Amino acid sequence: MSGGVYLLNKPRGFSSRRAASRVAHSWSYEKWGHCGTLDPEASGVLPVLLGRATRLSQYLTGGTKVYSFTLVMGVTTESNDMESPVLQTRDATGVSREMVISALERLTGTIEQTVPLYSAVRINGKRAFKFARSGETPVMPTRTVCVRNWSLGDVEECLVRLRVEVSQGTYVRALARDAGELLGVGGVATDIVREESAGFSLRECSSDYSSSNAMLTMAQALRAYPWHHLSPPDVSRVLHGLSVDGDMAGDVALVAGDGRLIAMGRGENGVVKPVRVLEKP
Asked: Which residues neighbour 62 within 8 Å (Cβ) at sequence distance 6 or greater?
């Protein structure tokens, strides 16, 4: 297979890159990548792109993501999780369920979020987490993100399990930090699990690195896009970069009769033009 997308349930304790490399090694691919970096101590959906599928990254990294995590109230750390030393503790025993609901309501919709210091964002060409490790505290950028559909568990002993749907680029650790600030006691995130990403769900993923059930063909991985089925003559046209007739608009998967993804195309005015050809003539 020239390429595929492996749906990994990334384990805790591994960087996304290390986990993806293990998948690539298991399937004997030299070229690989992944969609949407997860923190080392987070687990969940990590689509691993293998072979020619690495050219599909832009089509598989957007969309919404769903996370569950535990909000630990009364604790503040630099990393907004429990992976760095505690900076401050405060009494959070008086925080009620109603207070948490009120805080989450203020973190719903389109909001401005300050990127965490412990992140891979570049500031003047340097990764933010490298500033953190050297004891520096640069001014962190903000992002406009969309947050919705909070689900709230029981509030017990300053802990609450939360589930939330977010747009691309949202930091769950920052949501925990901001919720804690709104409550006046501080907060961090633990036990982060990405349950959905780019239309893929955790139940489709494997914790193993070589399960055939978790491997998708390139065409299967693009199930969120409309498919335009190509006749043999149209396959030849697309392989040479030529447009084909089609009434679809926007991004379109151009698929051969045998199920191979030939290219990603762009439909407009009754034709579909190939923009990313994945096979050779």
From this structure: 168, 198
Query: Residue 223: helix, strand or coil by DSSP?
Result: coil
Query: Domain 65-197 falls in which CATH fold?
Result: Pseudouridine synthase (3.30.2350)
C-alpha distance from residue 113 to each of 31, 80, 177, 178 (Å):
34, 13, 10, 9
Q: Is 234 exposed, middle or buried (0-12, 13-18, 19+ CB in 10 A)?
A: buried
Question: What pLDDT sits at residue 68?
Answer: 98
One-letter amino acid of 54: T
Nearest to 163 by CA among 200, 205, 191, 203: 191
Q: What's the fold here for domain 227-277?
A: 2.30.130
Q: 142-156 and 159-166: which strand pairing?
A: antiparallel
Residue 4 has pLDDT above 80, yes or no: yes
What are the phi and psi torsion angles at 216 (to 5°)? -110, 145
Mean pLDDT for the stretch of residues 250-271: 96
Q: Quick one: CATH architecture of 3-62+198-221?
A: 2-Layer Sandwich (3.30)
Among residues 39, 81, 178, 234, the one annotated as catalytic is: 39
Q: Is 81 a catalytic residue?
A: no
Kindly tell me the burial class for residue 16, based on how many C-beta atoms sit within 10 Å of its own C-beta (0-12, 13-18, 19 or more). Answer: buried
d(CA 278, CA 275): 10
Give me the torsion for CA of 165, 166, 172, 176, rounded to 10°: -70
Each residue of 106-139: b (16+ CB within 10 Å) or e? ebeeebebebbbbbebebeeeebeebbeeeeeee
131-143 pLDDT, tens digit each: 777 777 778 889 9
Residue carrying the six token digits 């429990």? 82
Portions of the chain given CATH number 3.30.2350.10 = 3-62+198-221, 65-197
